[in-house]
């Protein structure tokens, strides 16, 4: 962990959802809601930056009544403050087929996101008829996970991360939360120095390292904590609110 003496004002807060904003019941605590509202009242952009799709995050995000951008599917999609799609980056069908074969070979659990649907175990017969954004493996066996990780990491067309210690998440190369946030910053006229980013997993690592202030949750994976400027409390102990109060509201 690298403690920072941050001089630039925070104008955008990027927040991961699972393991970060959400507690273990997948709820947003009252304290987190209050801190987010206070930050917005001070003119700070609050951007949810999640591996989830719109189908699986909209209800929770809508409950915050935010007036800023939304980043979904690990940065594959950027949505503006009106809910309109700014851009979407797809994952080539041939890589989906390749990962499906890996899933069959190693007998793992998996899921994937296409435009409009999340697939879990049941997959379409013809992959080419759909627009794919992400493929995920859930692998309890450390050895099998390592084998698949090494094989995927050798492919320069893929961006490999995770959203929990037992899974792997694969997007197209160049798709991550940091790049998506940089694009949002350009659109609203600020820099990454003005960003506070917080998360718990490897799919949050790029934005935590690129932000002016990168915050890891108390429950974050060890490597994420090591790469952060500061470690807040856990996702079940209002870690998001505590980080916002320290770095943005100065309370």
Write a concise synopsis of the structure shown:
It is built from 9 helices and 13 strands. The chain has helices spanning 17-21, 30-41, 54-62, 93-106, 142-153, 177-188, 205-210, 222-227, 239-247; strands at 12-15, 45-49, 70-72, 77-79, 85-88, 109-114, 117-120, 132-138, 158-161, 167-172, 195-199, 213-216, 230-231.
Distance between the termini: 22 Å
The Cα radius of gyration reads 18 Å
- Catalogue the unreliable spans: none
Instruction: Please tally the β strands and state the result.
Output: 13
- Describe the sheet with the most strands: 8 strands, mixed
Q: Report the order of strands and helices.
A: EHHEHEEEHEEEHEEHEHEHEH
Residues in helices, as a percent range = 25-40%
DSSP summary: helix tally: 9
Multimeric state of these chains? single chain
Structural class: alpha/beta
What integer is the average pLDDT? 95
**What fraction strand?**
15-25%
Inertia-based shape? globular
Q: What order do the strands of the largest sheet run in, or round the barrel if closed?
A: 5-4-3-2-1-11-12-13
Question: Could you walk me through the main structural features you see in this protein, from its secondary elements to its overall organization?
Answer:
This protein has 251 residues and is of the alpha/beta class. The protein has nine helices and 13 strands. The protein has an eight-stranded mixed sheet, with helices on both faces. Strands 7-6-8-10-9 form a five-stranded antiparallel sheet, with helices on one face. It is globular. The protein starts with 11 loop residues before the first strand and ends with a helix.
